[in-house]
Amino acid sequence: MENNQYYIDRLEKKSVKPTSIRLLVFKAMVEAEHPVSLLDLETKLETVDKSTIFRTLNTFLAHHLIHDIEDGSGSLKYEICSGENACSIDDMHTHFYCEVCHRTFCFRGIHIPVVNLPEGFDMHSINYMAKGICRDCTRQRRQANKQPI
Q1: Nearest Cα to 77, choosing from 109, 104, 108?
Q2: What's the CA gap between 76 and 99, in Å, rounded?
Q3: Are the C-beta atoms of residues 42 and 48 closer than 8 Å to each other?
């Protein structure tokens, strides 16, 4: 139980009861170190069914433990909020979607530009997504092009 204390504390700070499934899902998200999809979690947690993972993610979203990212892949990605009480300004960073390997990367050092909306508009989230080819896929393509056929 001692190893799980960090995860238990994070869940309890957000008023989420730390059940065994919630701890498994949260720990898998922390260990991933990048945004994950429902399918990513289902693959990693093969003993937990998809609907249970989905309900857990919705609970985490409702308690602002995580936020979702629309990367254009047709599958939402989920990322842990870094703030203690809500998603912080640090969570408002640029994401990059690789069109080759279909991974989503966080660029925490590149913050989303401030968007001043007209009066009467109340923004609750913002998504800033760049798309292209990641460093690894670019390197693999360059190496493949140098090999003789």
Answers
A1: 104
A2: 15
A3: yes
The interaxial angle of helices 50-62 and 20-32, nearest 10 deg, is: 80
Give the Cα separation of 91 and 102 in Å (integer): 21
Buried residues in 51-88 as b, exposed as e (16+ CB within 10 A):
eebeebbebbeeebbbbbbebebeeebbbbbeeeeebe
Hey, what amino acid is at 112? I
Taking the C-alpha atoms of residue 51 and residue 54, their distance in angstroms, rounded to an integer, is 5
Give the C-alpha separation, 82 to 111, whole Å. 14
pLDDT for residue 86: 56
Give the long-range contacts of residues 79-86, CB within 8 A, separation 24 or more: 79/29, 79/34, 79/35, 79/36, 79/106, 80/26, 80/29, 80/30, 84/13, 85/13
pTM: 0.73
104-111/93-98 β-pairing: antiparallel
Burial class (CB in 10 A: 0-12, 13-18, 19+), 106: middle
52-63 residue pLDDT tens = 999 999 999 999
